[in-house]
Amino acid sequence: MSKEIVIDKAKAGLSEGSVEQAIVFESGNEMAAYAAHQINYHIMGYYPISPSTEVAQFLDGMKARGQHDIKLIAADGEHGSAGICYGAAAGGGRVFNATSANGFLYMLEQLPVQSGTRMPMVLNLVNRSVSGPLNIHGDHSDLYFALNIGWPILMARDPQVVYDMNIMAIKLAEDPEVRLPVIVSYDGYFTSHQKRRVQVIKDNDQVQKFIGEMPTNFPHALDRDNPVSIGAYMNEPDTINNRYQQSEAMYNAEKVFERITKEYAELTGREYPILDLYKMEDAEVAVFMLNSATEVCKDVVDQLRAKGIKAGVISPNILRPFPQKQIAEALKNVKAITVGDRGDSYGAHGGNMALEVRAALQTYGNHDTKVINRVYGLGGKDFYADDAEKFFQLAIDAVEADKVEVPFDYFGHTPGNPELAPKRRVEPLKKEDLRTGLITVTPNEETGELKVKIPPLRALTKKPKRISSGHGACPGCGIFSGLETFFKGIEGDIVALFHTGCGMIVTTGYPYSSHKQTYIHNLFQNGAATLSGVVEMFHERKRRGEFDALGLSDDFTFVMVTGDGGMDIGMGPAIGTALRNHKMIIVEYDNEGYMNTGSQLSYSTPLGHMTSTSAVGPYQAGKAFHHKDTAQIMAATNISYVFTGSEAFPQDLVKKAAKAQWYANNVGMVYGKILIACPLNWKSNETLGQEIVDAAVNSCFFPLYEVEKGVTKLTYNPEDKKKRIELSDWLKHMGKTKHMLKEENKEMLQEFEREVERRWNQLKAKHESPYL
Predict the structure, then answer these.
(1) Contact present, 236 and 106 (Cβ < 8 Å)
(2) What is the pLDDT of residues 175-185, one digit of tens each?
(3) Given its phi and psi angles, is residue 474 left (phi above 0), alpha (psi -120 to 50 degrees) or beta?
(4) With the C-alpha atoms ordered 646, 650, 652, 657, is the resulting torsion angle positive or negative?
(5) What is the Cα 259 distance to its own chain's centre?
(6) How far apart are CA 213 and CA 299, in angstroms?
(7) What 3-state class would DSSP assign to 41?
(8) Domains plus CATH for the chain?
(9) What residues does 494 pair with on adjacent strands?
(10) Which residue range or ranges hold the Thiamine pyrophosphate enzyme TPP-binding domain (predicted)?
């Protein structure tokens, strides 16, 4: 966070209030975190997703410096984070979260439960385009899914408003006339990452005095003298009565918000009316916008006014409850308005905001104001002043023509042109090149054990790569060298599904693809389920003889590639896929974090390792709990084959790939885990990747083994080879772990060493006995 500066506000033209304020120069995400630390919430349950991830990162860094007492809980996915928050709210404390886009949709199932049981909290929704296709930039398609979940929604157009709305939001949520969870909505990357000058309340005690003591007169789960049932089953007529009470609370939020903003204005000098109206007093044409694009339109209003055109801008500061009456009043003398929607309500002949503005006019008897609707700015497409001019011109044209020529359309798009369809740049790989015959896997008829024969690795260099060069991976990235080594052991054609992650993002920037064979993408949480559907369709069509009839190949190996924490949020479907035993391979590249969203901790991050959400400082020293042993978890599902591998031991990895293919094609699901280097986030030399993963193996942190039909076998034992090294000899190579070697962190290092030794000895015991 930037250093606070106290200045003469009158000279600077800043707002005056009853409390001392300071100036910081920060982004929207930083201001959400800043407000949260001043409120000092009890719990934040979170999961990383761009562009909201930074909120948790900033809070984690502040926690490491001892600036707040918030318990930050890294969930296994957004659904889990929503559960953490609901449970914490049911426990009677103050709760905070931040998310975006598909993460918001993943938790969506749970959000009406929280509002329906009247459990307050604050959620920052950092608006981002909802997939698919995958896009991480800002529009309002996620916000529009929030309109019907029963949460009041506050709108924040710049970092100053993000700060102010976050402080007011918890007061609104806890008000006895409301008692609902509240969303603060602001634009991803436009507001979340762009820095602005922001006034903040200097004394945290003044913030807490403003929001008040946490209410204690409502039932919660931790009062043993007053046990309650939370979320009871409810039939009619109780359900409709419950909904009616919730509806009344939502409409109460409007008047409570008005009261809170007046109190806040006395405190800070900044007031937020229900509608942010800019030069609407005598406006004849207007534009209705949400959040950051509003400020662009205001500049254009000044230019139009200089030309004698009476233009104005409307933007709500609260979106739920929808300020219907105030909008109708603001538009009573307006001849035409263009409503901008940064998201579509597909098939409804307009975006959500246009539909609601039209409803407001209809409700209050205004049949004269003409409404034009344009969907704009999807996927983060910029909205410039000349775009705003065109929005105003649409309204001006409607006034002059006395009709709206095109009530609804997209703006800034290019209609599809078949002549410009992407053309194939790489010819399909030849089957004879992929099936070399140099690798053989033969089952022993008596024991059932597989005998694998591979040639010298140089003989496999002629085998074409499955992923072409030209992708956007960082220098030294181990994903593709590790995957390609694995793929050297796979003969024939593949269909690959990639989870969201670095491997997916850097290879598929439309309209280009680095994948030479069929590639599918689906979201983190259900990749395994998706590929299992493809697998079963393949076998069913093959059974029906459809491939023969169409002259198509019926020889595929199905591989799901996961990594960047994908086996946290995707663990459930992966286990389900294993239990159903679909004929496919899941291979995890383990880079020990969520690298694609900025190096947050994942459950595969080892104890003590520094990430952007396990910061190092006087009050914490990296990740506080041990890493998840995914291979052992998958072995417990009793699938036929589980393995670990490393490109530092290529012969071992190629052999295991060949085994994996045989089991996947003949028996059922296979799981493999490959340790790969990430120089950027490991803070290591990009030329030392293989050396570092080699050290991880020889320190016994990442043992090389396989579990074949339930029997564990070490495929490399550094003790037998006289190559075992100290754990510190691995850790010293990476900037993310050097703090662990300092004297003040000696106990943490010893705890890490004990756990590595325990897991290693357990594996050796399993190697010695087939019954373990």
Answers:
(1) no
(2) 999 999 999 99
(3) beta
(4) positive
(5) 35
(6) 41
(7) coil
(8) 21-221+238-268 (3.40.50.970), 275-410 (3.40.50.920), 455-597+625-728 (3.40.50.970)
(9) 557
(10) 557-660
